[in-house]
Design a protein that fits this description.
It comes from Streptomyces mimosae. This protein is mainly β. The chain has one domain: Electron Transport, Fmn-binding Protein, Chain A (Pnp Oxidase, Chain A). It is globular. The chain binds flavin mononucleotide.
């Protein structure tokens, strides 16, 4: 599967269980795809038992930011296992909080999608989280997509 080139997204949610007021959580993912147009459904596959799997089990709504080439460093940071705190990482990432989900929407992303979990399917060592798309934003000024292929971040062309 390393030979399948893919776009990179940051899956985010507001984790109510992190501290008294909750905190933002994020995870870099490539296993993200469009499932249905009517209704609009997308899917992300998260490793069972990972922090984001726990967060998405609790949070009914979440978001995905489709990352641009300029966001390679951000993708790397949110893929580090055992990182200390997503709350601290988000301090350095320009973002807004989605009106429908409360999840961070990364500024400068190619597009953002706010979702509500429709179903969760256990699949081997991952959980498939299928979300109904509640809202989207498109950044007309955004640059090129961040790609991942054969174990490395790439650019188009
Ligand atoms: C390019 C890239 C794509 C990734 N895609 C996924 C994915 O689709 N699903 C997933 O569960 N983890 C994926 N990961 C791994 C998670 O980003 C990483 O395991 C997680 O952030 C580590 O935190 P945790 O172990 O504390 O959960 C990917 C990592 C990278 C670098």
């Amino acid at each position: 599967m390393a030979r399948l080139a893919g776009g990179v997204v940051l899956v985010t949610a507001h984790d109510e269980d992190d501290g008294p007021a909750g905190a933002p959580a994020g995870m870099t993912a490539t296993a993200f795809l469009s499932v249905s147009l009517s209704p609009p459904l997308v899917l992300v596959s998260v490793r069972s038992g990972s922090r984001m799997d726990d967060v998405l089990e609790r949070a009914p709504r979440w978001a995905a930011s489709l990352l641009s080439q300029e966001q390679r460093v951000l993708a790397g940071r949110f893929a580090m296992s055992g990182r200390l705190s997503d709350r601290l990482l988000f301090r350095e990432v320009p973002h807004t909080l989605g009106e429908r989900s409360g999840a961070p929407l990364v500024k400068g992303a190619l597009a953002t999608l706010e979702c509500e979990t429709e179903s969760r399917v256990a699949a081997g060592d991952h959980t498939l989280v299928i979300g109904r798309v509640l809202d989207t934003t498109l950044d007309g000024e955004a640059g090129e997509p961040l790609l991942y292929y054969r174990g490395a971040y790439r650019r188009m062309g």
